[in-house]
Amino acid sequence: MIFRQLFEKVSSTYTYLIADEVTGEALLIDPVLEETDMYLRLLNELGLTLKVAMDTHTHADHITALGKLREQTGCLSLMGAQAQSACASGQFEDQQIIKIGQLQIKALHTPGHTDDSYSFVLEHQDQTYLFTGDTLLIRGTGRTDFQNGNADDQFNSLFNVLLQLPDNTWVYPGHDYKGWMVSTLHEEKQHNPRLQVSNAMEYRQIMDNLNLANPKMMDVAVPANRACGEVSL
């Protein structure tokens, strides 16, 4: 397997390249529009063919490269079914398998940050990789106060879905603002302050009192991402 963690510094977004080195088929998770040329260059340098580009959810802090990558490479652009994206090539649902060569990535519906939030699980050579988008961050979790977010839903997504995976699962988030690149579920269970709660009510009290400002790009990014990255002027 070929695996790369890529970083877009303006929005502190991680994009993940996953590829089957036997077939050369590749997938990108959460690509950012401004980094499109870099993705294309990397794919070319590694001799890979992009088959799928997909987002964990409808982003509010950056514009997706799904549409641009489909235009440039002919790849499929995929979103979760709950995003109701008319522009995407297709959609995935809970427990659906996305195949890239011999690799199998399982989609898990993990709402809470948004109602269309998904995480992705990949098992390879006895190691589990978990791509959590904004549902689970390193020592944090995604906010739940817009885009049909819901703290109770996120509590369920965290404790009854993601944290049920093996403790040694590697956690790769959609963002990190401190420069941390990877964690494990065991680390997050032990040290993530948002996970030190005993029930959904305690979690909701934390999330309802964050008092965060809206993302600066929200008014532009959300409608653009619902159009697969097409910006209306």
TrEMBL record:
One of its GO terms (biological process) is hydrogen sulfide metabolic process. CDD domains: POD-like_MBL-fold. Belongs to the metallo-beta-lactamase superfamily. Glyoxalase II family. Keywords: Acetylation, Dioxygenase, Hydrolase, Iron, Metal-binding, Oxidoreductase, Transit peptide. Its cofactor is Fe(2+). Residues 12-175 form the Metallo-beta-lactamase domain. GO terms for molecular function: hydrolase activity; metal ion binding; sulfur dioxygenase activity. It comes from Methylophaga lonarensis MPL. This is Zn-dependent hydrolase. The keyword Transit peptide applies. InterPro entries: Metallo-B-lactamas, Mito_Persulfide_Diox, POD-like_MBL-fold, RibonucZ/Hydroxyglut_hydro. The lineage of its organism: Bacteria, Pseudomonadati, Pseudomonadota, Gammaproteobacteria, Thiotrichales.
